[in-house]
Amino acid sequence: MEKLTKEHIATALRDVPLFSSLSTELIELLANVVNTRDYPKNTFILSAGDKADSLYIILSGSVKVSIVDIDGKEVILSLLEQGDIFGEMALIDDHPRSADIVSRGPCELMMIRKDDFRKCLASSPALSMQIMLGLVQKLREADRKIESLALVNVYGRVAQALLEFSEKQGDTLVIDDKLTHQDIARMVGASREMVTRVMRDLVDGEYISIERRSIVLHHKLEVYAQEIGRAHAHTQV
Question: Which of 94, 110, 129, 223 is deepest in the core (most CB within 10 A)?
């Protein structure tokens, strides 16, 4: 793939939600220390236990974040796409990588090495604040997933997972990036067989429909997820 210019990298950084409010000077500061790298499909980008040396920003493609539980089964923590950042936590606390990151298809990533990243943080309180906000958001998402696993049945967890990974297309929520039943099972902490049953029931109940390689979410599914959220709020009062 053709090497990106600093101008292209700066433009890509402005499109990253975490960096969108930074000044032109800060964007240029980051662009000066960015390297890019391509990864083919199903390639380990990071492995749990690795020493931290860089943070990564997805320029194109998507990756899977997963761990292996005590029974040796893969648990998918999240699926990240263009504009998402990963690997920054280990750069801050110097702990080893906490999860495996694997490319789901061909990926192009921007990389910032640890020393360069820390110099940028030290020179810019605004950048430090943005990184802190990003870490807080990840912590809140982790808390929500833990709560969901503890309190919501499999139907609710599948519904929430589908909504989380859907995108607006006009007035419709769609998942174009094909999620297998095994992928969903690893995200919601259930067996593949149970997820297959739930998906079949959601289709039969007209909560979702399957159109070629896409999953179309209907309004009923959003209402169902909202009812689950209200039930949680009621039990916590």
Answer: 110
Determine contact, residues 41/106, Cβ cutoff 8 Å.
Answer: yes
CA 121 to chain centre: 23
Tokens of 220: 């009923």
On the question of pLDDT at 100 being above 50, the answer is yes
The identity of residue 152, as a single letter, is V
CA angle 103, 130, 229 (to 5 degrees): 70
- In the chain, the percentage of residues whose pLDDT exceeds 90 is 30
Q: How many angstroms separate the CA atoms of 180 and 224, rounded?
A: 22
The position carrying tokens 């696993």 is 149
70's enclosing H/E stretch is none
Helices (H), 48-180: 88-93, 114-123, 125-151, 154-164
Q: What is the mean pLDDT of the chain?
A: 84
The pLDDT value recorded for residue 234 is 43
> Which among 26, 2, 3, 1 has a CA at the least distance from the CA of 13?
26
Is residue 112's pLDDT more than 70? yes
Judged by phi (left if over 0) then psi (alpha if -120 to 50, else beta), residue 94 lies in: left
Q: Which of 96, 89, 95, 64 is nearest to 165 (CA)?
A: 64
- Where in the chain does DSSP place strands (E)? 34-39, 44-46, 54-60, 63-68, 74-80, 85-86, 100-103, 107-113, 167-169, 172-175, 208-211, 214-217
